[in-house]
Amino acid sequence: MENPSEISTNLYVYGVVPAEAEIPRLTGLRGEEIVTVPSEAHAALVSPLPDPETIGTPDDLMAHSSVLDQIAATAPVLPMVFGTVVPNAETLTDEVLDPQYGLYEENLRRIGDAAQFSLQARFVRDAVLAELINEEPEIASLREAIYGTSEDETRNERIRLGELIVQGLQRKAADEAPRIRSALEPLARETVEREASQAEDVLDLAVLVERPRQAEFEQTAEALAQEGAGRITFRLIGPQAPYDFTGEV
């Protein structure tokens, strides 16, 4: 592994880890090998970047995220803002690592030996719509009223139907979300609930999970997915860097 102090080009910075963290052999942007720049209790993850003016492509962003998530699988890591470049290791130490020592220490204490998992639960629209039609006569009658008509002919009915469906989905999500949270939260160090982005969303949860509990957490999420099969879909991503708990440093 190359000594970062001997690299004669700019350094791209991915994130910060505890100084004692064991870092696997990885490549980052442009296929360059990841090296570390130590400073007191922390170390920065970097790779050479000969031409920083060209940075910012989708492939660069994917490489940045991939490095952080691969590190998160084995060690605590604080993600650096995408696109952070310094001219050399000395500048990184003197102007980034040392001045931010307290912030890094606080955030690393917060996440402990944990990584983030992101879980999204979403209704299967057709399945839950069938439930709403059976449960709410107005939805059923409005669907019959607009069948075979144009949007202009039944504009008001369509608007009302859309409102009722969204309200019904929200009501059902409010019933389902606590059950999912109660199954996962006992396995979590911390959770952050994100705002729903679609009417079908039941729950969008970022979960900080200690490494010894991650297998149990994944098994619990899988069990929830099996219980909801055909009605609720579950998407689990992780381990990830703790973006929702520390932000980008």
Automatic annotation (TrEMBL):
The keyword Cytoplasm does not apply. GO terms for biological process: gas vesicle organization. The keyword Oxidoreductase does not apply. It comes from the Bacteria. One of its GO terms (cellular component) is gas vesicle. It is found in: Gas vesicle. Keywords: Gas vesicle. Belongs to the gas vesicle GvpF/GvpL family. This is Gas vesicle protein GvpFL. It comes from Sinomonas humi.
